[in-house]
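[job 4471] stage=fold_predict status=RUNNING
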Amino acid sequence: MASVAFEGIEKIYPGGTRALSDVTLEIADGELMVVVGPSGCGKSTLLRLLAGLEHVSAGTIRIGDRVANDLSPQERNIAMVFQDYALYPFRTVRGNLEFPLEMRRMPREEMRARVERVAELLGLGRLLDRLPKQLSGGERQRVAMGRALVREPTVFLLDEPLSNLDAKLRSEVRGEIGGLQRRTRTTMMYVTHDQVEAMTLGDRVTVLDKGRIQQVAPPRELYERPANAFVAGFIGTPPMNLFPAALAAAVLPAHLAGATSGRRLTAGIRPEAVTLADGAAPGTLDAVVERVELLGHETLVEAKAGEIQMTARIPTMRELAKGEHVRLRLDPARLYLFDEDGRALAL
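[job 4471] inference complete, writing structure tokens
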């Protein structure tokens, strides 16, 4: 196992397309780092640079104490799992697990011992003689992970490995990946566009947008203390409500309402900090219901208060009709403010 460091990484493709700009990031030995962001933000490019499948335009990549810029993919000893699994269809599970070791000309007894150890770790023992077509999607994903693990890599890379699975399997395999990482303490870099995966898996999460790092922090810190408006709006399901602070003067504390006067600030509040109020109570907003989702344990209400689009998370079943007028109370203690450049302001 090894630590990983990206130091001032730039990636510019022929034609001038800039994929990454000044990316500096450290991944500790044994850490599970999740890289998350919208499509096209550069997260898969970052992973491919670490794997040696592409070359940096500027900057330094370190694996452990070695500069990796000029090392071949084989010399880096990195294992990678893709979203399409890339299993050999005419080899059994055992054959797929053995393949990378055969390429290294590993002695038969050592190869067998490694395969059996990884098969036990991943619960594949009863499947060793089956072909990939005889496996479920979750089982195929475990075989792909096993084929990577059997090499005993220094770093384990996963590129959106759950995107081809249905919701139930995603949840199950996500739990397996987290458990596997805790048992093996293998350094992992996990790339996804799914923030639920990011928040439930990562020791820390790196949020990328337009090729630049927006924030690196543990999941809870990302949610509770977003560094800027992009992170605030990207992390969270449903996402944070964001709106011009001037339009929220009625619910802002007096000292904040004065501070926002004449400034183009953005206010933000999480849906769970927006509740329904009875009557025209002070500090509430009149709104019109636009959409309601009854989820059993909670109700999501999308409503429009003047020019403000707002989502409220109600912790009960609440039946409301589209077009119905309601009063929204915003908890002033749970408001966020962001400056003209999107940076979070201390309240």
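[job 4471] summary: The CA atoms of residues 288 and 325 lie 5 Å apart.
[job 4471] exit 0
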